[in-house]
Specification:
The chain has 10 helices and 2 strands; from the N terminus they run ααααααααβααβ. The protein is an all-alpha fold. It has a single domain, classed as Endonuclease III, domain 1. It has a two-stranded parallel ribbon with strand order 1-2. Helix 2 packs antiparallel against helix 7, helix 2 packs across helix 10 and helix 9 crosses helix 10.
């Protein structure tokens, strides 16, 4: 019996870490609040950089940001900020680090207001459900990512423009943008 050929989207290339992320996480619907927070931090850190750069530092981010415990990160002090600035395992951008701490605080506020961050996100989705796209062309933003980004900016979130928002939506499975013949569609 012949082996089944795995077909992937083109973007992971031959990088094993990228392929693992593509195969096991990207586009998979998640309701887990910790994962939703983790990707807020990681996608915001990615602004202006390549995703593989952040993916390779993900373990360092877990250690630096209290295993993505939003309550702990929200309580980070000036000493924590200084510790993060000195941490060579993460992107040491002053604004992004301050933004990550503020993101944790805002994340908790949104959870309180909506019952969960998931509920907040899906209040913007048509029918309150994930979307499946069938395009073979890359998508970088949509009216939904525009609306979420605009609302998050109004709430005080930083480094979360519509393109980063759409990448976030892809990462947490709010949209499934695997190409039509991808084995992981």
């Amino acid at each position: 019996m012949p082996a089944t050929t795995i077909r992937r989207c083109h973007w992971p290339g031959n990088d094993p870490l990228y392929q693992k992320y593509h195969d096991e996480e990207w586009g998979r619907h998640t309701t887990d609040e910790k994962t939703l927070f983790e990707f807020l931090i990681l996608e915001s850190a990615q602004a202006g950089l390549s995703w593989i750069t952040i993916l390779r530092r993900r373990g360092n981010y877990r250690k630096a940001f209290a295993n993505f415990n939003a309550k702990k990160v929200a309580g980070f002090t000036e000493a924590d900020y200084e510790r993060l600035l000195a941490d060579e395992g993460i992107i040491r951008n002053k604004l992004k680090i301050r933004g990550a701490i503020r993101t944790a605080q805002l994340f908790l506020e949104v959870q309180k207001e909506y019952g969960s961050f998931y509920n907040y996100l899906y209040s913007h989705m048509p029918g309150g459900k994930p979307l499946v796209n069938h395009s073979t062309q890359p998508i970088v933003s949509t009216p939904v990512s525009d609306a979420i980004s605009r609302d998050m900016k109004k709430r005080g979130f930083k480094f979360f423009g519509t393109t980063i928002c759409y990448a976030y939506m892809q990462a947490v499975g709010m949209v499934n943008d695997h190409i039509p013949d991808c084995s992981f569609k």
